[in-house]
Amino acid sequence: MKLERRFADAIIEQALAEQPNEACGLLAGNDGIATRIFKMTNAERSPVLYRMEPAEQLRVFNEMDEAGLELVAIYHSHTRSPAYPSSTDVQLAYYPEAAYLIVSLRDIEQPELRGFRIVDGKVEEVELEYE
Q1: What are the DSSP calls for the chain, one per residue?
Q2: 17: domain CATH number?
Q3: pLDDT recorded at residue 26
Q4: In this predicted model, what pLDDT tens digit does every residue of 55-84 receive, in sequence order?
């Protein structure tokens, strides 16, 4: 997956800023290439779980539709665990067309961002290529 460095940097910055809770958001664009980032509110306000605030999520999806954008990726942070989908992440992966990006803050000095496809409960890593 091609990802502009500015989006990777923004995801990591948001994750660091929202500690000790998980951060979350969406990347939108066309043809699998992100052109916009939407930093979302974690309604759970939890260090181990995220759920996008429903009204905000609806507003953003409507904004994406009006702009002719597609969902490219869903991202969130893991505050203490590796950048790999948890069993909860896999269970709640409702968008098989989207990549799932996870940033791990387990090593706060070197956050790790990885990408995955989650389809029918199967996790497959996707290589992130920075532009």
Answers
A1: -EE-HHHHHHHHHHHHHTTTSPPEEEEEEETTEEEEEEEE-BTT--SS---B-HHHHHHHHHHHHHHT-EEEEEEEEESSS-SS--HHHHHT---TTSEEEEEE-SSTTS-EEEEEEEETTEEEEE--EE-
A2: 3.40.140.10
A3: 98
A4: 999 999 999 999 999 999 999 999 999 999
Rounded to 5 degrees, what angle do the CA atoms 5, 3, 98 make?
Answer: 140
Phi, psi for 69 (deg, rounded to 5): -100, 155
Q: Residue 88 sits in which domain range?
A: 2-130
Q: Determine the residue type at 30.
A: N
